[in-house]
TrEMBL record:
PROSITE patterns: GATASE_TYPE_2 (PS51278), SIS (PS51464). The lineage of its organism: Bacteria, Bacillati, Actinomycetota, Actinomycetes, Micrococcales. This is Glutamine--fructose-6-phosphate aminotransferase [isomerizing]. Residues 2-221 form the Glutamine amidotransferase type-2 domain. It catalyses: D-fructose 6-phosphate + L-glutamine = D-glucosamine 6-phosphate + L-glutamate. The gene is glmS. GO terms for molecular function: glutamine-fructose-6-phosphate transaminase (isomerizing) activity.
Amino acid sequence: MCGIIACRAIEPAPGYLIAGLKRLEYRGYDSAGIAVTAADGTTAVFRTTSRVDSLTGLVDGWAGPLLAGTGIGHTRWATHGGVSEQNAHPHQDCEGRVSVVHNGILDNADRLRAELVHAGHRFSSEVDSEVICHLVEDRLLVSDDLLHAVSGAVAQLTGSWALVVLDARTGRMVAAAHRSPLLAARSTAGVFLASDISAIGDWVEEFHILADGDVIEVTNDLVWTHAGTPVAVPTAIPRPPRPTFSLTLEADDHMAAEILEQPEAATRLLEEVGGRIATGALWNDLGLPRFDRMRVVACGTSLNAGEVIGSALSRLGGLAHSSVVASEAAGSVVELGTLTVMMSQSGETADVLRALDESPEGFPVLALVNNVHSTLGRKVDAVLSCSAGPEIGVAATKTFVCQILVGTGLVISSLVASGRMDTAQARRLVNDLYLVPEQLAEAAAAARALLPPLVDEVRGAKGFLFLGRGAGVAYAAEGALKLKEITYRWAEAYPAGELKHGPLALVEQGTPVVVVDDGDPRLAGNIAEVRARGGRIITIGRAGSSIEVPLSLAAPCGPLAAVVPLQMLALGLAVELGFDADKPRNLAKSVTVD
């Protein structure tokens, strides 16, 4: 949540900062701002509660001194303080010398603010981040060295932070990180900092990651310190290849584009890992021990994907699995022989990282992420990428599909490697996986043709039920989550057999009930129960459904193609209601705070 970019560049900074913030806007879009050094030794600050694009107009209207190549930028998801220009970053100290952008939450901000106010400091916002400006301001009175001042200031903080501090008087820039992602990179264009490589990938070929406790100065190079001691610059990591998908980061309607990219994303992933599944190599290459049960720890869409993966393990290998909400993982019992799979699209999800820190020692942990160089990917015993490529829409779509495909492939590979499945069966299952891209494409075509009148029919509904059985339950849950995220309508998902244990009371004349129909014969009775009470049934799945999608009853990951109409139903309803599906209210893509 929240995105940071900073640069010390040859060309004027606003161009880099605004372009980078556009690519970070998925991390938070309540407000945005930049601070840029000017030719007269001051700092020009531009802030807005509109979209990042509006910063361009503010900069174009600047009538002050020439803007230089050093600056910082931020796009905000509000935690402390409401959405207002006053609360937008960057924040400044009392004299306007120090400007700060910050991602994270400061647990001791209230105490520090009270102490600083008592000492005479003037605060202009409600946000916790502003205390950093005044702490640095005080430190500069003792030693006029920004690196020492920032090191001393962060030593007073508790919580999480990725921050960049800009000193207008000297033009110096210092950054620090603790439990929040930040990376640095150098190129012929300049030196850059960002929360995510996507923000600066056009200008650099490799990057360095700040570890917890690092404080660095950005000159024409990088001066790296840790806990007050100079250290070597960490090994550079090559920038990931630019996506080959049709989506560009400048495109509109990201969620729509990403839904339609799912066949292409699935094809690319299967080309990458498919040949190593039935041989056991996908599992063996991870170097993890044999396991007898799986524990999935995740949040939101990743948790739904994890349930599909765990169900595949139980169905195909007869092994137990459990799914744990990451925010509730503390104190959960881990049995001997358990493999913990921690799933996070970004690899920076705060609840997942906290669950990892609080996990008992001695049990292997595998991360399934979309960024193997993320904090989660660096802290576990082994890491596996879902290789979905950049996903800008806040509501996850193609990452869900790719997580399921690579996770199911991992399950099959582990069963082969442990002697629990023969290679002939594994090859048949892998062949089923190779059918998924075409199935996804057919499902999208069917949904485009059949959904518009259904969307028009249910646009006035205030609540929805989603039902499934067996492997369809997790997909029903994902459909309900997508609808809630981008239409702001109540949507609840249940196993269909639970209808008579409570949810059926919600059904009245016209209530939309969406059923993931994978052919389970018991669903017919559940559908009849809903119709008898006036519910509007929408079935997605086997022949005869409202929206037919290609299904293989033997498919290792269940009715995966059904997720495409579920995603498109949510998107179509959001558009019909006039909502921006790419930027749903109160949500951000990467949840990096508790």
